[in-house]
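Researcher: I'd like a structural prediction for the single chain below. Treat it as a standalone chain; there are no partners to consider.
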Amino acid sequence: MDADASLPKPRYKPRESPPGIRFVDPIDGGQFSLFTEEPFAPIERSTDALPIPLDTAIEIEPDTFQTPYLVGVWIRDSEFTLVDQCTGGDTVSLEDGEYIVEFSAVQLKVYLGIDGPFEIDATGDAVTFSTEQASDVVLGVRSYHEQPARTITTTTDPRDLMHAISQFRASLMTTSPERSFPTLRGHPPLLELGEELSIPAGSALSEPSVFIEVPVRWDRILPVTSLSYYLDAAVVPGREPRLVVDGEQFPLVGPEGFEQRVEAILKHVFTLDCITRTEGLYDVELHERTLIEEHVDLDFAELYDAPIADRIAAYMDVPFDVVEPAVPEWKLTADVEPDPNNIPVLPFLASDLAVIRVPRNQDIETRIIEDTTPDVEAFFREDPVLVRGQPTADRTTSTTDSETISDRVFRPEPTESLMQTFVGDGIPMGATKMTPTAFRRRLEYEPAEPGRIQVDVVNNEDAMSEESAVSDVYGTREWIDFDISVHTELTKAELTDVLKQETDFFHYIGHVEDEGFRCADGHLDAETLSDVNIGAFLLNACKSYDQGQALVDAGALGGIVTLATIPNPTATEVGKNVAKLLNTGFSIANARSLLEEDEQLASRYMVVGDGHANVVESKAGSPASIQVKSASNTAVKVEFQGYPSPAHSVGGLRSWNVEMPVSNCIETTRIPHIEIQRDEFESLCRMDQIPILSDNELQWSGEVDLTQI
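Model: Treating it as a single chain, here is the predicted structure.
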């Protein structure tokens, strides 16, 4: 991978209270700390101090140090062979030798190089290292952040686009099964439109052994983007869509159609790679391997060392329905209108291994956003409440006024992915409205202050003051520094100042009307702002879509907005739960999606801009939710659902810090049926604030009596 040497590297700073050392990635704000008994002055070491790629390295002087919370720990010898794994409840004692310790589920790639004997204790709420007898201890970190190494110019000619997409495979850091790890898939080069095809010098491309043949049509080229990238395949013209692996042919049209077949092959090959890689550097028991191993005739050890074409061909001989139970929940499905102006989104979608579809008119279901169930209609009719829009508008007037939005709203074809994005015209209800500019901004965004999270809560309506309590939610992560500012009854000029100053999250409470944000002295129309300096946002007001889209156009990453009338009690509850979800590590898109499990009117909320945007990272590396199916005095039956995060995407490993009936799992994990002993269930819930769905009600593990579930 061609790295950009000019990018800032993670930096370190001693901690005073509690004492220790903290590393911060200035690019995306990722951070990680180690606590020590006394303050110490770190000694910088060469990044060659360990036999793995590092951005920054220091020497650790204290004999005892501790993580801020439980993390997974992998221990390797000098040959990088895995010798042990330490999770919650374990202790490990290593004899004299040279070791490399890798931390899992943290915001940076963190490694310890230890020369000598040492001990690890993970029986409490953190992981403690004792290295009194070690002669040398080096702490090294590497950023998760990946920048595209090149920019390719392509024309609107579909054949040129095929050549450009075929270059994506050069960004793979390996063609071994380990490329299923997100950290070993480099970001594909950017695409831009121009007068002629121009592919600058970059990573050398080997002769492909895998080809994807498709007709020279937009609706056949776009959907194979992620597949060609992951399979290290060249995209070439062909009469019929097919996958050609070392001369062996596999059709790309199945019983359910072309796009569905491409999606199935991507997930099938990817999942089998995740299982095969357990024969290599990560020789661990894997839950998904146990699901299918008895049902397939594959020699995983032999496949691990096989060339990529041989491996893919062997995978394709395995029935898809046999592997399907092991396929992880997919992160993203993207509907991309076949407009040449949308070409620049393709590298970002390939980086996410997104399922890409080209929507047709029959896929679009026009929606009236004010339509509701009889129960909700009765709520408005029988229990008049304050709404967060025009103060004098009644229900009928509100519906009429919303037609300017309603005539642009549609429901894209449903997807099983955790996130759904639409790139094109209109307002995609239930999906994220995305543009090429919004994708590009993901690479350019910098946190307000690396190492600190700035949150601004604005309440411009005294009658909605109850929601201001969200300021007590943000910042309750003891190992992260927050600056929380609460503003009330702002004028137009004051609100403009808040939007123009750097902040990581902007939470607005109040009224949004046709003229814009209602302020103490009139209305502020975000469309008049040429630039803003906010990261993510929540505009918790009626029909805030246009103002939110204006914020994205002016420079914000992305945010949650509303498409219709929102009664104040609903908005208050949604606002509090959004704050809790974001503070637990959820992205804005996954937070909005989870709300629909609990609140009927949550369907009136949607995401504009980058749905990946988040405020903090999860303790577990990626957040999760638990749905309780049944419970007894001794055990709880649940459905466990993991969610992706910027640093932990599809293909990572989720390990458990409590005793679980399943082993390590492939992210993004979904386990539909799992029975956990009650004491272990309670231990799992106490590790973090986890959203729990019980009897269709959203609760929080830190706020409910777990013994009563």
